[in-house]
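Response to reviewer comment R2.3. The reviewers asked that we include at least one raw input/output pair. We reproduce the pair for LysR family transcriptional regulator here without editing.
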Amino acid sequence: MQLRYLKTFIAVATTLNFTRAAERVHLAQSSVTEQIQALEADLGAMLLDRSNRQLRLTAAGQQLLEYAQALLDLADEARAAVADAAKLPRGRLTIGGLETLCATRLSPLLAHFAQAHPSIELQLKASGSGELRNALRSAAMDVCFAFSTLDEGEELQSEIIGSERLVIIVPPGHRLARATEVGPGDIAKEPFLVTEQGCVYRHMFDTAFSAQRPRIAAEVASLAAIRSLVEAGMGCALLPEVALAGSNSAVHRLTWHGDMQTVPVMMVWRHRRVQPPALKLFLDEARASFATLTPADARRPRAAQSR
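Raw output as returned:
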């Protein structure tokens, strides 16, 4: 069995879709089909039931899936042990994160790491929390960054490596536009723009306003759209301040002094008995990088204020 075929098989087995599997392993769909057929020929058993429109694992395929990831993990551990003994941090790291973190915190981190370790190939992917979780568990990603935990389980490890300050943004000319900070009482009657249920940014809003929630004017699909609608005067919004980095929007940002003033930044990676040297280096670099970016007052919760 070739290890790359096992990686392709895991992608097919977890997506049950050749097209999505091909995207995950960066191969043409025809190549994915060829590798699965070669694996079936090598093992002498059908791994996938293609008789119906819905692709399904056979009993043999289900049995292989229980071993495939363990075999790949063992191969990774062997490479890591050899590389560690030879003191040669090489390989490829796939790093993921929420779009906001990829565009702000992760870009300079990767640039610095690439310069310090040119022998390590890096790939950065922006996804939602659900996609990040699935990519970690399927070994399509080595480490990711998000604003909340990703249901760790036994196969994942996580660590809070920083925090981001929350702010309220209001339209130009708003009655609070000249203020610098607000508390729950200041915006209790204001309409708010939020993302959809299930989104990490919606969870921030629901948590920050758990006691007294303002009126929701609309659910919006993206932070960029929320910023535009706030600028157009449709309402206010609660966001991590980092989401406004580099934005030319005319919205006014106000420091938020509610019960929840910051959100943690989580670093999550797959648990291994032997950590690959390249990943170990990156985790340490990320810890150092985010430590310098943590808001100065993140460790000093302040009482909510009202005007």
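Residues 59-86 form the longest helix (28 residues). The chain has a mean pLDDT of 85. Further pairs are available on request from the corresponding author.
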